[in-house]
Description:
Blueprint: H1 3-19, H2 26-39, H3 44-55, H4 62-72, H5 76-103, E1 105-106, E2 109-110, H6 115-123, H7 126-140, E3 143-144, E4 147-148, H8 154-172, H9 185-203, H10 214-232, E5 236-239, E6 243-244, H11 246-252, E7 265-268, E8 274-280, H12 286-297, E9 305-311, E10 315-317, H13 319-323, H14 329-343, H15 350-361, E11 369-374, H16 382-393, E12 398-403, H17 414-419, E13 424-427, H18 431-440
Parallel strand pairs: 8-9, 8-11, 11-12, 12-13
Antiparallel strand pairs: 1-2, 3-4, 5-7, 6-7, 9-10
Helix pairs in contact: 1-2, 2-3, 4-9, 5-9, 6-8, 8-11, 10-12, 10-18, 12-14, 15-16
Amino acid sequence: MERSELDRHLLEFIRLLREGGISVSLTEVQDALQGLTLIGMADKSQVEGVLQSTLVKSVNQLPWFQEVFRVFFATPEAQSNWQKEAQEKAESWEKGMAETRKELRFQGEELELTDEQRATYMSLPENEKERLKKFLERSEEGVRNGIPVDHSFQPVVEKMFHGSLEYWKRKLGEDFLIAPPGQEGLLSEVERAVRQKEMHYLTKDLKDIPPEEWPEVSKLIRRLSRRLASQVSRRLRQGKRGSLDMRRTVRENLRYGGVLIKQSYRKKRKGKPKFVLICDLSGSMVKYTEFILQFIYGLTSLVAGIETYVFASHLADITPRIRGGIQSFQGMVNTSLTGLVEEFGGGTNLAVSLEELHEQHGHSLSRRTVLFILSDAQTLEGEKAAVYLKKTRRKVREIIWLNTLPEKRWKDVKSIDLFRPYCQMFECNTLEHLQDILKKSPGFV
């Protein structure tokens, strides 16, 4: 390949990398170009090795790089098909946007909505779209202080409409929202492949993930935990002072015909919660514990401290093992848990473990503490465990129980009915479950 042609292809490849957030400097471009000049383009695996070693800076960038490489070096026929699909998606996107502009109007005037808000509307179930359209119709015919509303009321309607769309955006999740297509077929295919791979791991039962895929799942966990940390760190909560919460103010003053008699405020969340994790280490639970610990420890920017205990026949504090050392976090988790699995004997006894938590680590339980219990709730001495759980609930901010059993099987486990009055219990056997639970956790709101 001629040098000028090689330059052009490399720059196109780097452009796709940058679309995925991989920054590439001029020096790195020169290093990659020099490497390709030396080895040539005949051996695809060598080309990938040179590009990865010169352009990728962290394991978190690997999924995007790998998909860009696969797509960029695909056959011309495949690239042509992706281009055609991207064009069809672009046309469908434009058609959907045009329809929202016709449908979402107040007294003939188009509502002020961002493309993201319109995309959320496009993703809604049909019955929810109809509900919002009827809301607009009723608002147009409404009366304020005995006088029919006019265009001056449109900002209030838009505020309420924005609030509803924001709710649905959170409920649907970013993976289910209609997204604008890529500018050309290759980028669109890369985006699709990355999302599809991510969804595969999000929805798969953690115990069913084979060992050869664990590194890939760990990379996804790091991305998800950073993404979640970024989302919730910007949250505001209601308060008596601070900036005016316009959406809540409008909602609470509807009874007064829209006159702003009562004001609601919001302020930045004060202080960080403290997480205490108690993880079941019985045979079938080990793999869940490894993955979920990685996820929660990825949220360290949001919490003041994380203390971790594991239990089977008794309780063990593994916080020093996880915080210490120079190996990777995944390596520390694997090392810590492997030794403890061999150490623990007998059946699972949550009652003994909670008793030891109070007696030996009572300082960890306070009104700032959000206690997470990871277990399938199958334990000896269930009634005694329920007594200690009740005692624990009085001391902490909240107890979140992550139950790896499918909820349809809970009726078969007697102890679950004993535990549920003292905690919020969620089915949690996939990364998607965990992500949704943490978004709703009182530790973040």
